[in-house]
Design a protein that fits this description.
Elements: H1 3-18, E1 23-25, E2 31-33, H2 38-50, H3 56-59, H4 67-78, H5 94-97, H6 99-107, E3 113-117, E4 129-133, E5 142-152, E6 155-162, E7 166-171, H7 172-177, E8 184-190
Parallel strand pairs: 1-7
Antiparallel strand pairs: 2-5, 3-8, 4-5, 4-8, 5-6, 6-7
Length: 192
């Protein structure tokens, strides 16, 4: 196999595992609520700039499993500080690159975030983190950020941005429509 064939095979395997299309460039309709504080504005601007073009020079690229690496980068842009448990240098920590590792890290950091469930989604704001458990196994399989809140006919829709798959302002309900019915959604309401 040549490199191009391997790359295409890798992409197809990743898609079949994740169950998602590769790129979602949404154009929300209706009113979209965005960030109003400088840290969250910086986080969302970073996400918009890098969701399709990863910042590989600084942070590397983990291919089809780069979602938490990407979210961690946005949190760094937001003003979070590196520490031995959450870092990309000199090497990636588990919390930086693993959805489940990130959850475990945040469970020990109540000063950073509070875990919420799908039933609590009306409390979620732009810049908060969303995690998905595709098969209701207890592990977290995908991580993204909330990049906007779309209001259409009085209905509130959370828009998320991620890498692997690359998405900006993809409605969570559309993502869920592509997934197994066992999928569970969790949020991290960020304190700062």
């Amino acid at each position: 196999m040549n490199k191009a064939t391997i790359a295409v095979t890798t992409i197809l395997v990743t898609l079949s595992i994740s169950g998602c299309s590769t790129i979602h460039d949404q154009k929300p309709t209706g009113e979209v609520i965005r960030a109003t504080t400088k840290p969250v504005i910086a986080q969302i601007e970073y996400a918009k700039k890098h969701y399709k073009s990863p910042n590989k020079e600084t942070f590397g690229d983990l291919g089809g499993t780069d979602c938490v690496n990407f979210v961690s980068q946005t949190l760094l842009s937001r003003g979070w500080n590196l520490n031995p448990d959450w870092t990309y240098k000199p090497e990636f920590s588990r919390a930086w690159i693993s959805s489940t590792g990130f959850r475990e890290y945040l469970l020990t950091k109540p000063e950073l975030a509070t875990e919420l469930t799908w039933e609590d989604r009306d409390l979620i704001q732009v810049g908060d983190v969303v995690q998905f458990d595709w098969d209701n196994s207890g592990d977290r399989d995908h991580t993204a950020i909330i990049s906007g809140i779309q209001i259409t006919n009085g209905k509130r829709e959370l828009l998320h941005t991620s890498h692997s798959p690359a998405a900006f302002d993809w409605p969570i309900t559309e993502l869920l429509a592509e997934q197994d019915k066992r999928t569970k959604v969790y949020f991290w309401q960020l304190a700062k």
